[in-house]
Design a protein that fits this description.
3-stranded parallel beta sheet; 2 helices; single chain; alpha/beta
Length: 95
């Protein structure tokens, strides 16, 4: 009789967040709309306030490129654009 242990690696490996910049002055802010009602307006306002307080500049506002569903990831094209065109991304909002 063989006995199989149910332990082991499952799913994707854990990822860590990118390090936060120490100073935002001169950095480019992007807003990634997650599709929730009023999320874009909320994040735009937060980005504008952050920029006015720190010297960062809002340079990109986009949606996920996959339709307006908060549960889906953004498209690879949108992720690549964020990675190349901005330094800080604001995304997400709670209900």
């Amino acid at each position: 009789m063989k006995i199989y242990a149910p332990d082991g690696a499952i799913g994707a490996p854990a990822r860590s967040l990118a390090p936060s910049p120490e100073v935002l002055s001169g950095l480019r802010i992007g807003v990634l709309d997650n599709g929730k009602p009023n999320a874009r307006e909320l994040m735009l306002r937060a980005a504008e306030q952050l920029g006015s307080r720190t010297g960062a500049v809002l340079t990109l506002v986009t949606d996920k490129g996959t339709g307006h569903n908060a549960a889906t990831a953004c498209s690879d094209a949108v992720l690549d654009r964020l990675a190349s065109d901005v330094d800080v991304v604001i995304t997400g909002s709670a209900d």
